[in-house]
Specification:
It is a single chain. The chain is α+β, with helices and mostly antiparallel strands. 58% of the residues lie in helices and 9% in strands. It has four helices and four strands; from the N terminus they run ααβαβββα. Strand 3 and strand 4 form a beta hairpin. It starts with 32 loop residues before the first helix and ends with a helix.
Length: 202
């Protein structure tokens, strides 16, 4: 700062008043208000940028992952349906196998001892009143057994017993006024098979 010494009349010298400037306040770290404001804005901008980045990343991830999750859900639903279908098919196959084995055993038993069908014939007679039966068609091997069962159940005297060589062993048909009752072994086994499949599939 330069200065000049003036000689002469001191009254001609006018005092100069200096502008007062507020002192720059500083914090403990020696930073000014402007620096603090800049730091605050920078921190706020960083927070906003980070939040925007997280939101954008989340959105992008959802866009990429959502189709994969939907695909996985569809696959799991398909697997559940497939498992249920396989279970039902397995039940049906097992029941059919059991009934097939039972049929073979029963048919073999019929050849050896036709009286083994007595229970089946009596159960069929219980379904219809013996007095309502007009005619019985049966395989020749079953004639004596059917005659015996009908006598025990009190069948009418005019009942016609008809031996039919075209029938298979184990086939018996009761004809009534209401229609025909198939008391054959295979028919009874098919009914058992349907009942088991219905019961096990629930």
């Amino acid at each position: 700062m330069s200065s000049e010494i003036l000689f002469g009349n001191p009254a001609s010298v006018a005092p100069v008043f200096w502008r007062t400037v507020a002192a720059i306040s500083e914090d403990k770290d020696g930073r000014s208000d402007a620096e603090r404001e800049a730091a605050r804005r920078l921190a706020e901008t960083r927070r906003e940028g980070f939040a925007e980045g997280v939101a954008a990343g989340r959105h992008e991830t959802e866009q990429r992952v959502l189709p994969a999750v939907e695909n996985l859900a569809r696959t799991l639903a398909d697997l559940a349906r497939t498992r249920e279908r396989i279970r039902e098919e397995a039940i049906q196959d097992l029941v059919r196998l059991a009934v097939t084995i039972a049929a073979r055993v029963i048919h073999r038993e019929i050849v050896i001892d036709p009286d083994a069908l007595a229970g089946l014939i009596k159960a069929s007679l219980a379904k219809v009143q013996a007095r309502e039966i007009s005619r019985v068609r049966m395989h020749p091997a079953l004639e004596a057994l059917v005659r015996k069962c009908l006598e025990q159940s009190g069948s009418p005297e005019n009942l016609v017993l008809m031996v039919d060589t075209s029938l298979l062993p184990g086939e018996v048909f009761f004809e009534t006024a209401q229609g025909m009752l198939d008391a054959s072994v295979d028919t009874q086994l098919r009914e058992i098979e349907r009942g088991l499949i219905d019961k096990l599939s629930r």
